[in-house]
């Protein structure tokens, strides 16, 4: 007997026509969470100096204020997954949009460092939750043959959000004559930088009200008819419902962390299912290759080939364009060549480019802002740094989120993504806070460490990651 809500084997012509265009729009709407992810993490860049001047902050307090969003993101990722299993993916998106909007307004109206730190932590909660919900939801709503393409929309949204935040920061600072100065309509520009994040947050909230709930969540909650309608309209495979029912048979309504341990000791390694460890390690390695600090010395590299410090926006725009172009390339390739080949080639390219940067910085003289590279070496370093971004954007940037969304089975998906996402944010925080100290000790050694992690990533992918291209989620 078919499970409740399973489709009959009637004439296929009687079924609703699949709306693939609408499926793309739904995935894009969900990916706006990624846009907010990128926008929020980048918008503070233009405000940092103004905040330090406004509140008379020491470097230590400023660092704690800025990094608090990363701590909040780890917490948001940790709780976002289990919450999505309890109340649904779409409701968590709505909550995320509201928290984004409120934290943006609160940051803009902050009266001191403590209130700003609290609002940045709240923004981090929303960022972390979005980083978990978006890949899981897109994987659960997308047809298997296009899931990689749809899942890559999150990374495209992230890099587009970063680019948009840079442009908004520049426009506001230019209109005011500096981030600390007042804009023509009143108030310091840095406050409007934070406030601007409320606009995409509101758009995200409106769009979340118009997209369907995940069919896998609906089946878990016993709403088979609604799940079948979603599958037939957006996936074109109502028969998939029976497989979803079977994959969830005997599953608790609310998954918790204990479900990631496996039923018996033989099922687990160091307390967790091996597939969960695979997700955790992949997520951490994405950050340990140094993506968030690779351009810490970008001004030095660009200056070595003739750019001035005043050309910072131009150099940032160039980097953002490389990032976006690489992500588009990944969208084209990911469902054709697969996830594992992209990760393998990307890791190999990152090893080569980071090793080149380590060598280039070993030829440098001076320290900090006074670091000087020989002319020819500066050109090589700049080329290597931008090629690094291209390799990352075409592989580890989007592919990690695609894999995290699809590699786990229906029973544990969102909770497992939450754990892996938390590992990603913790790794992000560790790299961010450790880089200044490591760079002061030895910049070549710092980049050599990132090179070593990239080599580990290459070996790990080759040995432990399985290809998921074209496989249904129920076959994971």
Polypeptide structure, described:
With 476 residues, the chain is mainly alpha-helical. It folds into two domains: 20-211, MFS general substrate transporter like domains (Growth Hormone, Chain: A); 274-475, Up-down Bundle (Growth Hormone, Chain: A). It is built from 20 helices and no strands. It has helices at 20-43, 48-55, 59-87, 89-108, 113-141, 147-151, 153-176, 189-195, 198-208, 215-220, 224-235, 240-248, 274-288, 298-304, 312-337, 339-362, 375-394, 396-406, 413-441, 443-464. Helix 3 runs parallel beside helix 5, helix 7 packs antiparallel against helix 15 (312-337) and helix 15 packs antiparallel against helix 16. The chain is globular, with a radius of gyration of 23 Å. Residues 1-17 have low confidence and may be disordered.
Topology:
Elements: H1 20-43, H2 48-55, H3 59-87, H4 89-108, H5 113-141, H6 147-151, H7 153-176, H8 189-195, H9 198-208, H10 215-220, H11 224-235, H12 240-248, H13 274-288, H14 298-304, H15 312-337, H16 339-362, H17 375-394, H18 396-406, H19 413-441, H20 443-464
Helix pairs in contact: 1-5, 1-7, 1-9, 3-4, 3-5, 3-19, 4-5, 4-8, 4-9, 5-18, 5-19, 7-8, 7-15, 13-18, 13-19, 13-20, 14-17, 15-16, 15-17, 16-17, 16-18, 16-20, 17-18, 19-20
Number of discrete helical segments: 20
CATH architecture of the largest domain: Up-down Bundle
CATH homology group of the largest domain: MFS general substrate transporter like domains
| Mean model confidence by pLDDT | 86
The number of domains is 2
Fraction of residues in β-strands: under 5%
